[in-house]
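Supplementary Methods, section 5.1.

A reviewer requested that the exact input to the structure prediction be made available. We therefore reproduce it here, unchanged from the version used in the analyses.
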Amino acid sequence: MALEHPWMPLPFQLDHINLWALADGDGWTAVDTGVALPPTRACWEQLFASALDGKPIRRVIVTHFHPDHIGNASWLTERWQADLWCTQTEWLAAEYALRSRDDADLDRRVAHYRRHGIAEEHTAKMRARGNPYPSLVGGLPFHFMPIADGETVTIEGRRWRVITARGHSPEHACLWCEDLRVLIAGDQVLPKITTNVSVWPERPRENPLRYYLDSLARFLRLPADTLILPSHGLPFRGLHHRLSTLVQHTLPQALSGRASRPNRVGGIASAIRESDDAEHRGYRWKRRLTDKALSQRAGPHAPRFRGLKPPTHRGPTPRPLVVQVIPSSASLASVGLPVCGSQPAIS
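The structure derived from this sequence is encoded token-by-token as follows.
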């Protein structure tokens, strides 16, 4: 089964996203779409012209509502008369984010950060920026096909099971193919960095970090040698080791903050690495909000992640970009990747 791997640019510190195009009969199924900006669409045009064998995109699957994943969903589905498939909650979250543009919405968001001690100079920048979501998402298709946890999506005759996760987004969809032993992981399991988990203004008392940790536990059921196709970074194997690392990195930091961290997020702002990117500074603040919320709920109700033990080895080192999933029948090809030339297969 052919699977193209376009690397698309992002205008953030995290400067790329991996998208996936799976051969599907007389066309392709695309997984995620990139932000709705000219450089990304230029990459798509290059892909259309040179890498899809002249076949159309028949279906677009979006893992979640964040702009780098759903940004071009409307553009792609209109261009190819394709269907959009995504979970219902993610589609609704995108609708909400697109419509939250008036001053009252902005006032509520700024007040959320101000309550947690964010300095006025920074909330002023947030206010001046407004809601950046509509500038990165080119609308939504009116129609979509809802998918849900446990359902199956058939692509090129193979069954991909939907596994949903919470914490990073409300109903993030991953795709697992048992035949290929491949997981399209979206942002849920990344090879090098931890997923952004935030307390959002519209859900100030939510505990998304607990949702995220509980969701990670669901992936322990998959084989340890599963090939992970992440949205950022290189494909890798070593799923169980990576899950353990994510838990050990995330949980102790959150729980240790109960005794050692200031009660307000503004009190730790000086400890955050300075950046000219106000949007990413806001993301880091939201992570601190999450840690604080979890710390306040520690004790008998602290989130638990069952089934993982500390790793006794470093685990497999991620190799360069995969060009072969199954030597006899499946391939990954790179398009516009920063690493050029022939890449070895993961064995």
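Residues 2-335 form a domain with the Metallo-beta-lactamase; Chain A fold (CATH 3.60.15.10). These observations are discussed further in the main text.
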